[in-house]
Design brief:
This protein has helices at 3-19, 24-40, 43-58, 65-78, 81-93, 99-112, 118-135, 140-151, 161-170, 174-202, 204-207, 221-243, 249-266, 272-306, 308-319, 322-337, 343-358, 365-378, 387-395, 403-426, 429-432. By secondary structure, it is mainly α. Helices cover 76% and strands 0% of the residues. The chain has one domain.
């Protein structure tokens, strides 16, 4: 049996184990170990090679960006900046048709720029925005759909945990990935906002009968400054610090976490119990991401030994799929996997497999990362496994809103994401336009 055959068998076994419910990183590790053992003929050698891969995966200085940005995200969430972002956005857009929905999208975009975690956005705005939207006349199905749809902005607008994971997997600049996420993130936010206004006008039965906010004067300029000032400061220090060359991404994460902590303490919105909860959640997420990255590195080594990526590259060249054929197949596979796997698992499985295929074709890996993230995030809104939908359902205190209601409410936003993905595929400059020399 050739190494290529062993690699294909390992991939098949991994797919079976995942479908049977085994945790994806464990499935990757088990199949990687078995594959290297079969290829090299020695379990001792296989264990040593994979141990070296595990060490290499998290020994890098740049891995420090993961816990620091996760810590900053949870501190921001615990400090109440999510509600401030919602109040600001609602004041700006309350007079529009569907303005409270547009405000929710704007608040999610602001929140995404200081957290980068979709799940946190979904949980925060389920508590803040959904009750307000229902109170102002929006249909419950539409209200939860707006939150589900706009929560995915957290994984596209920088700083994004998924972009960080992609950067570590592919050894690409995290700063460049953050810059590349700005254009598509803004475009997706605009699509969501325009889509909400259009639905409010054209499909009132789906949206409900929202009021226009005439009874709400919104925030005064002083209140807007008090609520928006800390948010603007945090965004400027973290993202501006990276783009202006003041900080590396790791240093920016540390500065952001420190400033978020200071904001919470000064405003007295961060208690000792809340700080302990933040530290525990940061540790859990960091450990989970660490395990994911170790498993991905082991998986990459097994694939390299087996020659499967090289075989796929040869097949792609001889099949004459071309750029568009390859990208359309890849995007279709990513979206299909999004129906059964979470976003990190999809990236772990497909990126190491596709990287040796797309590199010889001269495909820009920064642009490829943005395409991957958008396609992966569509999966957060698709049944049967849409993690944002499940987070919203678990956070809701309303048994009358079912999982089916949330999926149906989120469906228009998944279609809008598909439209933005098509635009980014057709016009790469949307992602790479801000990067010098690209």
């Amino acid at each position: 049996m050739t190494p290529f055959d062993i690699g294909l068998m390992a991939l098949g076994a991994m797919g079976v184990l995942v479908m049977l419910g085994l945790y994806v990183p464990i499935a990757l590790m088990v199949c990687s170990f078995a594959g290297v053992w079969a290829i090299k003929g020695s379990p001792v050698l296989a264990s040593k090679l994979l141990a070296l891969a595990a060490n290499d995966a998290i020994a890098s200085y740049f891995f420090g960006v993961v816990p620091l940005f996760v810590l900053m995200g949870f501190l921001v969430s615990e400090s109440g900046l999510g509600r401030d972002a919602f109040d600001l956005a609602n004041t700006l857009f309350r007079r529009l048709r569907g303005g409270l929905g547009v405000g929710t999208v704007g608040a999610n975009a602001i929140f995404a720029a200081i957290t980068g975690i979709s799940i946190a956005s979904a949980a925060v705005f389920t508590k803040i925005a959904v009750p307000q939207m229902i109170r102002h006349g929006y249909a419950p199905r539409f209200a939860v759909g707006v939150v589900a749809g706009s929560s995915v902005l957290g994984m596209l607008i920088p700083p994004s945990l998924l972009l960080i994971l992609y950067g570590i997997l592919t050894e690409q600049s995290i700063g460049d990935l953050f810059i590349a996420g700005i254009g598509p993130g803004i475009l997706l936010s605009v699509f969501f906002a325009l889509g909400i206004v259009a639905m409010a006008i054209l499909t009132p039965r789906f949206v409900g009968t929202p009021d226009r906010g005439e009874d709400d004067d919104g925030l005064t300029p002083a209140q807007m400054l008090a609520k928006g000032g800390p948010i603007a400061l945090l965004i400027f220090l973290v993202l501006g610090g990276i783009y202006l060359g003041w900080f590396t991404p790791v240093e920016a994460g540390a500065v952001g976490a420190l400033v978020a902590l200071a904001i919470g303490l000064i405003r007295r919105t961060l208690s000792l119990a809340g700080l302990w909860r933040v530290l525990v959640e940061t540790g859990l997420v960091t450990a989970s991401v660490c395990l994911l990255i170790i498993a991905a590195q082991m998986y990459s080594r097994m694939l390299a030994f087996s020659g499967v990526p090289a075989g796929l590259g040869t097949f792609t060249a001889t099949a004459d799929l071309g750029f568009w054929g390859l990208m359309l197949i890849y995007v279709a596979v990513v979206v299909a996997l999004g129906m059964i796997l979470d976003s990190s698992s999809i990236m772990l499985i497909l990126v190491p497999l596709m990287l040796p295929v797309v590199q010889p074709m001269g495909i820009d890996l920064i642009w490829f990362g943005i395409v991957t993230v958008i396609a992966v995030e569509i999966g957060l809104l698709t049944p049967p496994f849409g993690i944002s939908v499940y987070v919203i359902k678990s956070t809701l205190d309303d048994p009358s809103i079912t999982l089916g209601d949330i999926f149906r409410g989120a469906a228009p936003f998944a279609l809008m994401m598909a439209a933005v993905l098509a635009l980014v595929l057709a016009f790469p400059v949307i992602a790479t336009g801000l990067l010098p020399g690209r």
